[in-house]
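Journal club prep — side note

Before the paper discussion, L.F. wants everyone to see what a predicted structure for a comparable chain looks like in token form. Sequence:
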Amino acid sequence: MGDTSTESSSGVLAIWNDCKIGEEFLYEKWYQGEHLHDRVSIPGFKLGRRHKSVDRAPKYFTYYETTSAEVLFSEAYLYQLDNPSILTREVMRGVFINVSRTVCRCIHRVGEMQGSHVITARSGTPTNEDNLKAIAEHLNGISGCLRSDVWVRFSPDSGPVDDKPRHEEQIRGRDSRIEWCIVAHALNSSTAESINGTLQLTCPDLELGIYQFMCELRHED
């Protein structure tokens, strides 16, 4: 198919979190029965995709793709954040914990397919975007790497709305943020380990994690 490198302006909500030990049943009841559907049903949301760690904390990695980053500041989305359901309120009170949540733009994508595993490499320090794109290009040269995305933190032109806690965040406590992330999709676990090893050598100061695919819901579903 030739060179599949693309520039992108799609939006991404990137979330890493843990679940309180012993509350996994409630956590999955919330995610499967309510939360994922509620989010993906919002106009402009394309999909929500969930993953579980195979190597270290945080235990869960979830991301939502949107038609643009501005969708994640839309009236419909902010209404959900400020009007959580009864079940959401219960989960936010100590079940959904150690949260890193950031609105991003996908500025570069190499490849097209999603894999059984993803490797996330994230940082809280801004860096040169061209360097990030070069890393994504390099990763996609590894056999079994299906796709590499570069996500960078996004704030709307109107001001730092991203830093204003909405009601859900007020309940659970302040989230941490990232400045950027590289997400690589791997065909299998061995490829994931290879990509992770490459990132450890290339960018030793990053927060790395290998996550296995759990489930996905698309807007049209």
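L.F.'s comment for the group: Strands lie at 5-7, 11-19, 45-53, 60-66, 96-111, 117-123, 145-153, 180-186, 207-218. Keep this in mind when we get to the figures.
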